[in-house]
């Protein structure tokens, strides 16, 4: 993925969504149509379409959703926006995110099953890539906390738990959904990418430390 593809003024959000999904597919984060991305720009949200292989998406298939009117233009082939659209919109509105990434990463699914209500980790260098919520980053000795909410039969049914989470964790940049996956957000696509890469790495470290009994 080139620097240009993550630069808000150099690349269209639809291109950024497609190139990030191709990258995430290699990590097995968006296999079998799972996962998706929403990017907010002005009063529009660019959202991956529902039910298609996310690594094969083309920019013209990305849905342009008007946040003010709650309407959208169908992507090429009459595609609908992701089932995660209400969750993306809520994270834009409640926490000021501009990019939300959803994956079905194996590390996320395993950690969501092992930890009860919150994943937490401290004393790992990569924690320093994570935001504290006040414009600075956490220190390696700080604790990164990621809330965990229960899964639901349909994505829209996750809304009450997501809304509760945004009030209890106003500085959060991620939430795990039990046995489902991970949502990570940031003020730009580039930052959201850095956060999700760091979080997945930290989830894997936690799983391996546990396996080793450390
Ligand atoms: C493998 S189906 C997964 C979906 O139910 C959902 O959780 C998901 O991640 C993607 O939904 P989509 O509507 O295709 O954007
Ligand atoms: Zn999902």
TrEMBL record:
Pathways involved: Amino-acid biosynthesis; L-methionine biosynthesis via salvage pathway; L-methionine from S-methyl-5-thio-alpha-D-ribose 1-phosphate: step 2/6
Active site per the UniProt annotation: 125 (proton donor/acceptor)
Keyword field: Amino-acid biosynthesis, Cytoplasm, Lyase, Metal-binding, Methionine biosynthesis, Zinc
Cofactor(s) this protein requires: Zn(2+)
Note describing how the cofactor binds: Binds 1 zinc ion per subunit.
Keyword Metal-binding on entry: yes
Compartmental location: Cytoplasm
All residue ranges annotated as the Class II aldolase/adducin N-terminal domain in the record: 15-207
SUPFAM superfamilies referenced in this protein's UniProt entry, alphabetically: AraD/HMP-PK domain-like
Residues where substrate binds: 84
Functional summary from the UniProt entry: Catalyzes the dehydration of methylthioribulose-1-phosphate (MTRu-1-P) into 2,3-diketo-5-methylthiopentyl-1-phosphate (DK-MTP-1-P).
Similarity comment text for this entry: Belongs to the aldolase class II family. MtnB subfamily.
Annotated protein name in UniProt: Methylthioribulose-1-phosphate dehydratase
Organism: Kluyveromyces dobzhanskii CBS 2104
């Amino acid at each position: 993925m080139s620097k240009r593809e993550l630069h808000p003024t150099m690349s269209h959000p639809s291109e950024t969504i497609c190139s990030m999904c191709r990258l995430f597919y290699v990590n097995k984060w968006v296999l079998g149509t799972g996962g998706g991305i929403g990017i907010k720009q002005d009063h529009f949200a660019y959202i991956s379409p529902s039910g298609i292989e996310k690594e094969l998406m083309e920019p013209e298939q990305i849905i342009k959703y008007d946040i003010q009117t709650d309407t959208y233009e169908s992507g090429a082939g009459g595609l609908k926006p992701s089932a995660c659209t209400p969750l993306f919109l809520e994270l834009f509105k409640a926490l000021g995110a501009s990019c939300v990434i959803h994956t079905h990463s194996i590390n996320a699914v395993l950690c969501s099953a092992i930890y009860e209500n919150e994943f937490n980790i401290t004393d790992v260098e990569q924690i320093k890539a994570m935001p504290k919520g006040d414009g600075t980053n956490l220190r390696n000795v700080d604790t990164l906390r990621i809330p965990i909410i229960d899964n639901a039969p349909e994505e829209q049914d996750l809304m009450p738990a997501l809304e509760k989470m945004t009030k209890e964790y106003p500085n959060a940049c991620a939430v795990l959904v039990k046995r489902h996956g991970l949502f990570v957000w940031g003020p730009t696509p580039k930052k959201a990418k850095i956060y999700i890469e760091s979080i997945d790495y930290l989830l894997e470290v936690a799983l391996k430390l546990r396996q080793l009994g450390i």
